[in-house]
Model the fold of this input.
Amino acid sequence: MTHQRHYDAIVVGLGAWGSATLSHLAGRGLSVLGIDQFTPPHVRGSHHGNGRVIRMASPEGAFYTPMMRRAYELWHELDAETGAEVLTTVGGVYAAPPDDEMIWGALKSYEGTDIPHEVLSAAEARTRFPWLRVGDSESVIHEPGTGRLHPERAIVAHTDLARRRGADIVVSQGMKDWEQTGDRVVVTTDSGTFTADRLVLTLGSWAPHHLKLDLPLVVERQVFAVYDVRDVPGPLTMVSLPSTHCEAFYGVPEQDDTFKLALHHGGLTGPTDELPTTVADEEKELLKSYVADRLPHFPEEPLQVTTCKYTNTPDRHFVLTRHPEAPAVVVGAGCSGRGFKFATFIGEALADLATGVERPDLHHFSPGRFPQSQV
Ligand SMILES: Cc1cc2nc3c(=O)[nH]c(=O)nc-3n(C[C@H](O)[C@H](O)[C@H](O)COP(=O)(O)OP(=O)(O)OC[C@H]3O[C@@H](n4cnc5c(N)ncnc54)[C@H](O)[C@@H]3O)c2cc1C
Done:
């Protein structure tokens, strides 16, 4: 029988959040092991398929503003340290009736801050952003610091950094079970057993199967499409628009003259491995009608239409916590379709929780807020 090394910490799930956590833990001089069932980045979870939006406006709550500042700082540090060019500033435009949360929520989150933004009239917006159809009664917000994160590059950068800092990484090995016995944790995978003082679980849409915690997580399939925008008059920015079918219809310009458009929420729900990856004709028609209505210079047909997954909590806030039944285990779950931009912050925060640093600022993310959770 081979003798496995005992680690200070193991991170299972090396997607957006886990790869960041692994690099932070390794950066603190700990002996760490990262495990993933696939070889991240991959197309089976929540991190594939083009740019992720990062912006300072946080209609979901003012407590996100300092988190977002720290996340931006850490993305810049990652780029400086690795040269990966994960973050690109593209600017962002939100166009909706003034009573839409997209508008009043963003304006509220700017209050008392120095976050650069402009409020434009419909006429001004049409001149500045000729590719966007804006209704006369709509308000438009422009946040110039809005950025695009390259998800695959982010995961590679964090994973490479972790490796350079001494982390061991095992891929194509699924965790079957974990257990805390005394002050150590035992992780059993398809082909081995590993032990550590601490375990971090960042399992994305597979979290409901392995957390041993009764969390009300719902996995939701999201449809997105990629358009050729070579002939669209610029400057193209990130855009967010209201939708009758879902919570928003949004998009982000990519680096290769393409533009990703996606529906935010309103998707099919179910266990992660049972959600269809094919896109139905009605879903394609829905995208087509939004494009025709709002983005008249875009081609009618996309280059590609595909799916990805959100893992939602009922209040759309994350779960970032020490496991209530197993104090050596730390859980990061419930990305709720908005978790990529926070990955650097969350990696640092989960590394803190795993190393005994108190993070009272994370109380918003306790599972105790859900009545049915076992805490
Ligand atoms: C279409 C789409 C658009 C999005 N747009 C944005 C956006 O604009 N801005 C934003 O901030 N966020 C956005 N998000 C959300 C963001 O991408 C997710 O919050 C983020 O990727 C979640 O990261 P994660 O680490 O939780 O999951 P993942 O990145 O999916 O990683 C989980 C990892 O755990 C591994 N794993 C799971 N179970 C096991 C096991 N048993 N054993 C070993 N490994 C395991 C998986 O293989 C996977 O690699 C979007 C998501 C989608 C789907």
Notes: DSSP finds eight helices and 19 strands in the chain. The pocket of flavin-adenine dinucleotide is lined by residues 12-18, 35-38, 40, 45-47, 49, 52-53, 174-175, 202-206, 210, 222, 224, 262, 308-310, 335, 337-341 (CB under 6 Å).
